[in-house]
User: Fold IQCH-like ATP-grasp domain-containing protein from Rotaria magnacalcarata.
Amino acid sequence: RQFYCLIWGNIVTVFRILEKLMYDYAIPVAFINGEKVTDLAQTVELEQKPTLEELLSTVINREDVEELIKKPGRRFFGSGGRERAAIAIQSFWRCFRDRRAYIRLRKRKWAASVIALTWLTHVKLSKVRKQLKIIRERQIDSFKTKQNELRRNWLSVSTNRRVIVHIPSLGLSQRIRRKINNLPVRENYQIGRLCDLDDPNVDIIYVSPMTINDEILQYYNKLMNLRLSVSQNTDDASSETSENASDRFMIVVPEALNSFPMHNMCLATLLKYSPRALKRIKNLIKGRESYIVTGVSHPDDLYISEYLNIPIFGCEPEASYLYSTKSGSKRIFEASKVPMPFGEYDIYNQQHLFESLAQLIVEHLDVQRWLFKIDDDYDGLGIAYCDVVTHLPCYKNVLKEAARFGDKWSNRWAQEHSYAKILSELPNVLEQHTICVNKTQFSNWQAYSKVFLTQGGIIEAYPPSDSVTSITICLSIEPDGHHTVICCGDHLHAESQFSCWGLSFPQSSVEAQELNTYCEQIVEQCKQRNIYGHVDVDFVTFIDAKTDKQQVWTIDLSIGYSEHVSLYRIMRFVTTGDFDPQTHSFTVKVKQAKQRVRHWQTGAPEYTVVEKNRFAVWSARLHHSNLSVLHYSVFFQMCRAHGVGFDIRDKQGTVFELLECQRHENIGMITIGDTLQNTLSNFAYNLNAINQEITTASMKGRSNFMLAISDIENILGITQENASNISATTNTS
Assistant:
């Protein structure tokens, strides 16, 4: 005590703490190391309470003491243990009770915040929906008002000076746009709209879905000058109006083209989000008579129309979408009383699908193949087919039943047993033998039927013939009710037999009067449904094996400006020719030298202007990956070396449609000739020459050239066979 007199008080404090620890834990004997206590007392002097570890470090028999202290419940064995146990129990209970209450409160608070946020979101969304509904109603009212005004003034608008704002937008549903590759390229198939300049009263504003460089701009300026040269060659009156054609068009590129790379938006939506482009268009049309010509209608067309304060040459987007679906077009065809394939539409459940198909098979046993088409299908991508008759086990028995009943087979009671048998076998047949055209999206029947039943669809008979020709008629229904046939053509196929890759113009498969009659009936039904603008009607024709007569079926209706109209505009622009919708013929005026007649002073031969028929084959879907390595100037030099070009004197040859300035993989081509066979042969020759020039053994690339050439060769074989049959019949008679 005398030696540690300066820290004795702290030593006593440590001993009391140790004494209390031993009492609390009922430790019988503990031997303390005095030197370690003095070391620990120095920390107590600094007002730091010693820890249990530090206290145990002063105990000599630490192992025995520590074992007792760490024994569960030992601290309640010492003096006051019962009181400490009661305090511990109470504190544990209060902790459990309060924590449970806190968790319950926290859950309620979280639930309240979720409910509040959900309600606020609902209220805000409801306000936004109401605002959007009001805006949409206002836009529709504005659209209808402008349409009525355009309808009243159409005669003066269509004959006076005007500006046409071309927006080649593909306003397809979001589901389809997500699956389409190169949507801007598909929209730019319609760049031939620039050739509406053949009317001297028209100025064009073309909204481009792709950037346009000087090379493409220079090409289309030269195309306008080609029109001038052609007109002057035949002393055409349009030569005077063609002099300033290159000054009467303007190409506007929306600044939002690259702002939404992952959304695959249509051009109308991108233009909506391009305020500078809209403002520029508004300034260009200020104080001038104008209207918009869209592609496939989209609700954002209404916004653009309202912003620019000009009407749309077309119908309301909702009506356009409704009657462009497969089921919607069937309603129009049914009301028009035009011939249609056997089938059923508005199918939305599996039971309806199986029952309808079974009934159709029973009623039309001669149909070998049945088609399934999704309602909002585009370009044949939503088609599947099944040769049901080939794979149906009970088909032979059904034929025997039909032969046994004879004329009574048309009665339902006669078909009942066969219908039940077919219905039971159909699911398995469709599951195993249905072929989807778009195999990248639909790998099997399960994947296809899921989308088919969700979106709705139709069942349609495939023509029961080995030779089927598809025809497209492009119509224009003007706001005042008049309609015109713009062009018509037979389909060329490359990637798929259900997709139109190109046209041979004009169509030569069906009598013009018959198709015109069907088109008039369809137009009347369209006008009753307020459908105006550009409309494409698709037909198929074949020889019926039963009657040995030609049959025509109306199969599809597309509302909107198509690539075929665009390509026809280019052909008409460079040839200065005219299409006769009554006879489905295209004529041009060419100079022809008079035989043995020369000018009395100069001795030069004298010419007379005569009308001659012209045919064309066109496609905007030429694709070859090796084209990307060529500049357009090199490409045109290569074409000239092979004699691929346009003769302004005879108004026949080849004209190209340039689509893109970056990759150059896609291009359009129009070949014009004096006969259909020569035109088809020249088109195939052009494709083959280009393919040989840009294809090597080490760099073949991806291309659809050879598929198109194969289809053209088949058509040429059929035409030659038909010509031989006609000549043989003539000789016999």
In short: The mean pLDDT is 88. The CA atoms of residues 589 and 611 lie 5 Å apart.
